[in-house]
């Protein structure tokens, strides 16, 4: 089993229901277990082209026997099943699933770029990620001093996933 970290974000429609639906779908993936889920973080839209609602972001740690490309395929499938439409670059979306980290795997391709190149720059990823890995982690990343924490004023903890998403 490999450990995989996904980043989820939603800022269109009912953000609570969207995160619930995505987590339910992840829990039904074959050969995969959801090991832990970060708190829900409300974050100002970062690097977007228009006026948008705040995001709700979480990170999810999975254990899986799926390959990196199968995990990506599952993420894209969940986005599609939830009705995601891609029109504008970084437009508002009901669900975005990013493969942030996959244990023992690095690939720099447009179709699958892992570790995700934005991790250290994005407060909306760093806050939930640091909750999953408060100390050392198996991915060789030191999140604690990442530059993205400078945007921490725009990040608010909504609550534990257990409370908010049950
Ligand atoms: N690590 C990754 N996780 C998810 N998708 C990836 C990854 N690396 C490359 N991709 C590719 O990116 C495409 C998804 O782009 P999408 O429109 O969701 O980008 P975005 O989420 O808006 O931007 P960003 O990647 O900056 O967060 C997918 O078709 C996928 O093939
Ligand atoms: N706060 C926040 N901003 C974003 C997010 C996101 O998940 N949260 N996702 C983006 C494109 O993937 C662009 N900007």
UniProtKB/TrEMBL annotation:
The keyword ATP-binding applies. One of its GO terms (molecular function) is ATP binding. InterPro entries: Hppk (IPR000550), Hppk_sf (IPR035907). Pathway: Cofactor biosynthesis; tetrahydrofolate biosynthesis; 2-amino-4-hydroxy-6-hydroxymethyl-7,8-dihydropteridine diphosphate from 7,8-dihydroneopterin triphosphate: step 4/4. Keywords: ATP-binding, Folate biosynthesis, Kinase, Nucleotide-binding, Transferase. This is 2-amino-4-hydroxy-6-hydroxymethyldihydropteridine diphosphokinase. Pfam families: HPPK. Residues 5-133 form the 7,8-dihydro-6-hydroxymethylpterin-pyrophosphokinase domain. The gene is folK. Its EC number is 2.7.6.3. It catalyses: 6-hydroxymethyl-7,8-dihydropterin + ATP = (7,8-dihydropterin-6-yl)methyl diphosphate + AMP + H(+). One of its GO terms (biological process) is folic acid biosynthetic process.
């Amino acid at each position: 089993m490999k450990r995989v970290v996904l980043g989820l974000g939603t800022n269109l429609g009912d953000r609570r229901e969207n995160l619930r639906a995505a987590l339910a779908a992840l829990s039904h993936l074959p050969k995969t277990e959801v090991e832990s889920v970060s708190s829900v973080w409300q974050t100002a839209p970062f690097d977007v082209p228009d006026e948008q609602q705040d995001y709700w972001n979480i990170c999810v740690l999975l254990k899986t026997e799926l390959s990196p490309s199968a995990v990506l395929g599952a993420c894209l499938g969940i986005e599609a099943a939830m009705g995601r439409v891609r029109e504008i670059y970084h437009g508002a979306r009901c669900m975005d699933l990013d493969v942030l980290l996959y244990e023992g795997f690095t690939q720099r391709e447009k179709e699958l770029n892992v570790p995700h190149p934005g991790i250290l720059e994005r407060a909306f990823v760093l806050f939930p990620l640091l909750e999953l890995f408060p100390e050392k982690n198996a991915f060789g990343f030191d999140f604690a001093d990442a530059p993205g924490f400078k945007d921490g004023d725009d990040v608010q903890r909504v609550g534990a996933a257990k409370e908010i998403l049950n």
